[in-house]
């Protein structure tokens, strides 16, 4: 939620850190007028940290940055299944969490969170290549290798590097609302929203033309959310049977077509609530939900709050 002071973000670089995993949160949360965050890149101690892929990192901060941070990102690192991070790192992560910081892992950074015990009894994910190793080493964790990210409130995990962008945008949506997240996505030239439940990869080869066709249909639907959008209408636009469209859509997005349409409508409603003074009835019509009562029903079901409370939370100046 919006706060009176910038949220403090620490990016913890461990030995073997993957450059893209380090760069994603550092860039997404970089300090700028539209982003009320302050970022510090740190390591087990100030100085040089040997990374992966031929790169090293010169970090200005040590583990004291975790005492300062509101959010701690742990980027992925090489060979996470061989040995745990240093005890000082594990203790610092536990202490940060105990005083209220959120911990977010990208890719194999989940192994560092696992070593803290904070994922025990919770769902988590990591890069599909290491998912079985994570489950074998830490059997108390419910490892889901078929999702892009998992949000367990104060601990979050994500799959491969690109899903780190999805995780960061998800955190932005949670903190600042959908308009800020979409703005950041445009700046990154990234998809504004991929569900955490979307598969890490399609399990079998699919003709590329289908993938392009369904992506085009999703774009087409997003421009027509105020119009009737049924499974048959969407399948007809994609030029496939409703059965094929429905099956492939779930594989591509993690949602059924109608679930996806409903969430797209709620997302548009969120943005209109944040950026306009339209009433709930008008917004309901604008997003294809017909009545304010219908909008309130689906808003509560998906987000656990009401449109009016959401507007109070995310409207600037309130």
Total count of helical runs of at least 4 residues: 14
Overall spatial form: globular
- Termini gap: 11 Å
Element string (H = helix, E = strand): EHEEEHEHEHEHEEEHHHHHHHHH
Mean pLDDT: 88
Q: Please estimate the helix content.
A: 40-55%
Number of domains: 2
Q: Summarize the biggest pleated sheet.
A: 6 strands, mixed
By CATH, the topology of the largest domain is Rossmann fold
Description:
With 318 residues, the chain is α/β, with parallel strands linked by helices. The chain has 2 domains: 7-188, Class I glutamine amidotransferase (GATase) domain (Rossmann fold); 206-318, Arc Repressor Mutant, subunit A, CATH 1.10.10.60. The chain is 47% helix and 12% strand. The protein contains 14 helices and 10 strands. The chain has a 6-stranded mixed beta sheet, sandwiched between helices. Strands 3-4 form a two-stranded antiparallel ribbon. Strand 1 (7-12), helix 1 (19-28) and strand 2 (37-42) form a beta-alpha-beta unit. The protein is globular, with a radius of gyration of 21 Å. The model is unreliable at 198-209 (pLDDT under 50).
